[in-house]
Each structure stands twice: as structure tokens, then as C-alpha cells.
Amino acid sequence: MNKFRSIPALGAFFVLAVVLSACGSGVPGNSIAVVAGNPISAPAFNHWMYVAAKGQSASSPGQPVIVPNDPPNFTSCIAEARKEIPSLAKTPAKTLKSDCKTLFTSLSSQVLDFLIKAYWYQADAHKLGINVTDAQVQKAFTSAKKQQFSTAAQFDAYLKSTGYTLADIIFRFRFSQVLEKLIAKHTTTVTSAQIAAYYSSHQSQFGTPESRDLRIVLAKTQAQAEAAKTALQHGSSWQVVAKKYSTDPTTKNTGGVLTNVTEGQQDAALNQAAFSASPNQLLGPVKGQFGYYVLEVTRIKPATLKTLAQSSATIKQTLTQQQQSAAQTAVDAHAKKDWFKQTTCRSLYAMADCSGYKAPKTSTSSATPTP
Q1: Which of 5, 217, 311, 350 is within CB 3.0–4.6 Å of 246 for a Cys-Cys bond?
Q2: What is the per-residue pLDDT for 142?
Q3: How far is CA 43 from the centre of its chain?
Q4: Which residues make Cβ contacts (< 8 Å) with residue 300, sequence separation at least 6?
Q5: Helix, coil or strand: residue 219
Q6: E-strand spans in the chain?
Q7: Cβ proximity of 293 and 269 under 8 Å
């Protein structure tokens, strides 16, 4: 995985600060939120919004970067949209304001979620005595940079194209290592017994069921089915007989062929007859839900099952991923328990991580993005 592409920006100031008056919610004037006394400044938030908007525009080459960072009126966003997208020059301000608000809601909730959790995780790490040194961070960064960028010019071009600063990326490596150590507190080694238990209860994942190839004629009446069977016994081809007698639209014009049929896929009566029959045995009429079947099994493909030894590596990977997911959930729950009540956000920016937040009745909360 590209360790750089998945890095949200942290810390640096790119967009000029939005000067906010200190009104309501107990958040200082030039801040968006406060976590246990630590402010998330407007300049830092706006920089992140710029990087998020730049990342979103990257998915549509040629799309301008518009940062909706001036709620609730979005005057600057509207002006920027009209400037960067000529076709919007005459679009009503009300329409553009609605678009800016939608973009703001999408980007700001992601940005603020990550900024808040950055505080939460590091605060919990400090309480648990987890320490990540500058040397460890620099080593991880240098190794990743060497693997992904052949020259300094390539790295500089990457920073320019994404809006990240070197400080952002260094911080993100520190944050990643802190999170890894927090997750490690909740994970254990996958044991052989766990692997065996998973294999025993999920064997369908490690093989294929028996399948059969059939030829069928589905007739409306028993008499027609008897006539079809008699014709086949006297040498008529399945192609001719199916076309004359069958009412099944899937197989009528293909000689009655059904391939790779597994147990339980077909009409119960057909299923029972097909999976109890020997190959090349003409059977019927069999009364089913939709009429009368004449059938013949032309091939049996036995079930397959990988051994426990063959499946162990895959199972271990699955269980490890499950543990990692559960550990991440535990880390989030622990951090929220410790710091949620101490996280206050300015009302215009409030989202699920902010104490006192109430989700709009017409929308549902999105899943927390993984940093």
C-alpha cells in the first residue's frame, strides 16, 4: 500500500485563517474545536480542507480545487466556483451556496474526524506509556520515501500535487506508529487451534460442492413427457426432442443442457432426481412445480476440499484481519470514552466526534474513516 497516498495532511497552515468570533460552544475565537484544552486552529483546519479538496479533484483530471471553508454563507466558495468554472458564472448564488454546503459537509466531517482522533489517540498513548521517538518516525519515513520516490524531485512534485507539506507527512508517520502500538495492545497471536476451528466451521470457503451437467425436457403434461422420453429412447436427439416438447425457455433451444448444477439450485423434484441418479440414465417423467421432467445426468464433477494445511495461511490472514478490525474498534471506543466529553466543536463544524452533537433527522452518520 502506498504510505503516502493514504496520508491526510496534519499541522501545516496553507489557507489563510478564517477569523472567528468567540461565540457559543466554548471554543476560542480562532479555533474550530478544542480537545481537552488543545485547540484545532482555523488555519490548520483550512489547510486540511485544501488537501482534502485537492485529493477529491484529483479523481477528476482538470477539475479545479475549490475549498468551501467559509460557512455558513460560503461567499468565497461561490466566488471561487464562478471564477474557476466559467459555465457557473450565471448560476444563481442560492444554487452555488447549496453546492458549497454539500461539499463542505462531506469534506469537513472527514477532516475534523481525523484531527480530533489524532488528539484522542495520542492522548491515550501518553496515558498508556506508549512512546514513539523522533528517530523511529524518521526511520519509517526515510524507508518509505526511498521505496516510492527515486529522486528528491519526484518527492517534491508529489508534495506540490497533493498540497501536503513535509511536516504533514512526518506527523502522519508518527501518528501511524502511535496507532499501531495502540492496536497492538488489543491483538493476540492467531493460534493453530483458532485456525482449525475456523476451518471446521467454514469448509465451504475452501472447496467446491459437487456439480452435475444435465439434459432436461420440461413438458406441460405427463403424456407429453412420456412422449418425449419415448422419442429419446428410440434415437431422437435431445436437440429435436427439447425443441418439440420442452416449455423451459432456458434450455428449449439448446438441447435441454444445464451445466454446473449444484444441489439446491433447481426445482426440488428435479434436484432430488438429478442428485440421486447415475450418469447416462434416462429418467422421468418426474412431476415438478412447473410440469413434468425427463432428464439425464451427463457428467458428475466431484466436490473438492482443500486440506487444513493448504488453507491455514489464508485462514491466518483472515483471522489476523478480523483481530485488527476488532482492535481498531476497541481503540476507538477507549479513546472516545476518555476524551469525547472533553471535545467541543464550533456549531458550524460539529460532527459525530463532538460532544453534544445531534445528527440531522434526515441523515445517518457515516462510518468513521480509517486514517
Answers
A1: 217
A2: 95
A3: 31
A4: 210, 211, 212, 279
A5: strand
A6: 31-35, 38-41, 207-208, 211-219, 257-262, 283-287, 292-301, 304-305, 343-345
A7: yes
Q: Which grid coordinates belong to 294?
A: 425427463
pLDDT at 66 over 70: yes
Whole-model pTM: value is: 0.69
Percent of the chain with pLDDT over 70: 90
pLDDT digits (tens, 9 = 90+) for 267-319: 999 999 999 999 999 999 999 999 999 999 999 999 999 999 999 999 999 99
Contacts of 73 (CB under 8 A, 6+ apart): 97
Check if the beta carbon of residue 48 is closer than 8 Å to that of residue 115: yes
Residue for cell digits 527515486? Answer: 150
- C-alpha closest to that of 297 among 211, 226, 212: 212
The pLDDT tens digits of the residues spanning 90-121 come to 999 999 999 999 999 999 999 999 999 999 99
- pLDDT for residue 5: 43
Closest CA to 326 of 205, 184, 193: 184
Cα–Cα distance, 347 to 259 (Å, whole number): 61
State the residue for C-alpha cell 464550533: 346
